[in-house]
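Bit of a strange request maybe. I'm writing a small parser for structure token strings and I need a real example to test against, not something I typed by hand. Could someone generate the tokens for this chain?
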Amino acid sequence: MPLGALMLAASVSGWAQSTTPSPESGIATTTQVEGKSLTPVTVTGTRDRAAQTYQSGVTSVGKMPVAAKDIPQSLTVINDKLIHDQGKDSFKSALENVIGITFEAGEGGRVGDNIRLRGFSAAGDIYLDGMRDIAQYNRDLFNIDRVEVLRGSASMLFGRGSTGGIVSQVSKQPRLITEQEVNATIGTNGYQRYQGDFNFKLDDEAALRINAMATDGDGRGDNAGASTHRRGLALDYRFGIGTANEFAVSYYHLHYNDKPDWGFQWLEGKPAPSPTNKYWYGLDSDFQKDKADVLTLSHTHRWSDGSTLKTTARDGYYSRAMWATQSSFAAGTTGLNVNPNTVVNRRTNAKSGEEHHTFLQTDYLTTTNWFGRKNSLLAGAEYALEKAKRSTYPSLIRNKLATTAGNPDSAGISGDLTERLATQFQARTLGLYLQDTIDIAPYWKLVGGLRIDNFKGDYERTGNTAPNNTPLSRSDTLLSKRLGVMFQPNEEVSYYASYGTSFNTSGDLYQFDPTSANTDPESSRNMEIGAKWELYGGDLSFRTALARTEKFNERNTDIDTANNSYLLSGKRHTDALEFEIAGRITPQWDVFAGLGFMKAVIDQSGSNAAGQAEVGKNPGLSPSRQATLFTTYRIGDKWRVGGGFTAVSQNKPANSVTSLNRAPGYVKADALLEYRINEGNSVKFNIDNLFDKVYYNTLYRGFAAPGDERSVRLTLTSRF
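Reply from user aminoacidic:
Good idea to test on real output. This should exercise your parser:
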């Protein structure tokens, strides 16, 4: 049996079109995915990553379990094997593998997860197990099985947002097998990470999985002032696994206590020169504290004909508080006169907030035959209640003591950390959607779907005087569409063309002003053609795509005075050409690689001189070229060697179109050496940024933050 088919079968769970337990439960079963029977697979003993590849396998990013080649859009999956081999520990670090993604430091301190996808913000397009996960906290991978990136407009599946695509995290799930894994990592810069994954089979239909994590480490710089200290715990209990009624209860907790690194202000259109890339200029009293507590309940009902109804409820509380330092040179400094005695000014960036999100989602899947044609139907509904509070520290000392470039004195000062509530936002969303995948002829499939959403937001600014404290609200009802056609002449090949729409409301960022509260949503569309191949008997996946993502009525600064609303007269697009390969070339050789080309252009902007100057320009965070590679080779039964690189061409921050600020392109190399001690134990040696390249991968209008310097980590993995 080809390894690719084995992995496909072993990946299906929960939603499989079968009333028997899924393969991952540890019971032999024949499963159907999109009508294709897969060979029975029995999972016993300890899971060995040596049998896995970097392939995506079955994906649920389209809200139904299908092979990746049956998704008529660009899809990248960063799975558990790739995450483990590279030693990734954060959401951001995993996404560095994905072409088309760039990183921005957000207004709320979201340095870790404020991402751009094909040049469009995806900060509000992050999902966890198919449900929106947009709270402001920096995410960890300790309970994540894989990260799936679906490119292109997808509001038909996910509602508001998704202009450039969505990023979905898939949690680890309990399985009907008792197995444990412990990873202990130590490294340079005081890095320590301890992670445990404990799965217990409780009876023939129930299992409990516990994941726990503790991570500590210092930041960049010779003074190593920035740091991270985070802890996580995930409890997942499933019962009735594989039966007609399956239930799941999960609790997730994560908290950070960090000293954030906000980089340094641009200087003459470039990242600040040395020695600023060697030091952290924050203060000992700086902090960033994030916390997430999430409870999720789900029920899956299966009928004997293979139909399923899955209903999930989630309630999450999130908080963050940040008091960080933004550093810059004194006025008059130029690149020619920077030296260790150059004056460095420091200013406080302080924010705080709380969020409470409640989601309820239900999806019904069934397969029917109408007029002699197979139809795979998805019908669903989603309700969301999102509450957000934003606070300030009004009495903090804003200007911190200056220092010099060569003396990053971090002696801290503290102001009054009493918070003052600044804004409150509450959003209610109701979405209904229907999608059908039809076998219209031999080798041909048609995918079509519609969704209607009603989004209502209420916003209040406290502590201000009239009219600035006047409550504002807005309600929008919108229709989203998805259409795709696939030609699959055999099991190994899929050619496709697709079209999808998306929308962004004025309240997406949890705020209104008197003008935006009267402004209709923005609209976007994605047009794409592509091909996907399964090679080497299904062991290696290769895809290519050519796409245009277009926002055709973007808000700008022009105001319709009659309606006191912003004009939706802006327009911009990104053209993308992508190539990606993932899987196993030989039984010893694994590879994951991507190559992408982007051309992002502002087509129309505001009517004033500043707006006209933007036309024809790159909107930012859209580098013209990106490439990524990670590959490993097994030598005998004991050794495995590997490595790769990440390459990005010249880039510039978003929302500063006419600015001359540019971060130079870079190539960063990584390396891996692993020794298998015995069946259950191995030791792994990772070197990130092998040649200690100075590069900048987090860009903002006011500053640029460098990527990680060279680090060395040793990991002991024990499975039992």
